[in-house]
Amino acid sequence: MLYGCVHDWCRPCSPELAMLCGCVEAMLTRASDAVRLRAQLVQAMLTRASDAVRLRAQLVQAMLTRASDAVRLRAQLVQAMLTRASDAVRLCARLV
Fold this sequence. Notes:
The structure is a single chain. The protein is mainly α. It has one domain. The protein is built from one helix and no strands. The N and C termini lie far apart (117 Å).
């Protein structure tokens, strides 16, 4: 093989053509590496976007849980106030 070219069809060629073949092969390898790197970058971006969506969903869930807790606490507070009012009415009725 001439000048380290791995292609059998370059053997009978001139040294210049064999070098050109090596250059083209190197360029294709670099392009392939660039495509691979781009794919990894896109995958990382999608993973980050997916993580962001997951985090947003957890945040919304936490907010809804807090809102639900607040509603529950308000209901308990209202119930306690009504109980106290009812107790006050009962006490007033006993006094009268």
